[in-house]
Amino acid sequence: MLREFRLSAARRLKRKRQAWKNEFYQEVKDIARHPVVLRMKLYPHHGSTNCYQHCMNVAYYNYQWCRFLKLDAKSAARGGMLHDLFLYDWHTHAAKTGDRFHGITHPEKAYQNARKFFDLNPVEIDIIRNHMWPVTLFGVPRTKEGWITTLTDKYCGACETSRRK
Ligand SMILES: [Fe+2]
Ligand SMILES: [Fe+2]
């Protein structure tokens, strides 16, 4: 009896996650197909993962967690997709520009790029500008979705780096 209940709960959760996966792509597809966003594919990020794939990973986990917690999953996914839209290779950025504080400066750069091409709501802005907390000491998230992004970003970054070949 208990086993059957557990199995049907697991099946229901699996179906729900599959449905959320499909809904996720519908919510971000205009961003994911935008030429400026596609440029992130040119820039390596963590390990063998490029910037575009990293943003897609963060957006996906943001969406799943925020759906589960009944938060603004759509904004969490869209903000996640844009959170690293700084559009350069950070590995060579310091040598080329003299900016040795990429970790601190790139959220603002990503925000300035994103606002040129997309209408951003306050949750999306919070996600992009404050995702690097605690590295950006005073850039503290103001929304629950922003806090979730500080975790999903670091989780995805760690997974991507550990898959380095
Ligand atoms: Fe970032
Ligand atoms: Fe990131």
UniProtKB/TrEMBL annotation:
<dbReference type="InterPro" id="IPR006674">
    <property type="entry name" value="HD_domain"/>
</dbReference>
<dbReference type="InterPro" id="IPR006675">
    <property type="entry name" value="HDIG_dom"/>
</dbReference>
<dbReference type="Pfam" id="PF01966">
    <property type="entry name" value="HD"/>
</dbReference>
<feature type="domain" description="HD">
    <location>
        <begin position="52"/>
        <end position="155"/>
    </location>
</feature>
<protein>
    <submittedName>
        <fullName>HDIG domain-containing protein</fullName>
    </submittedName>
</protein>
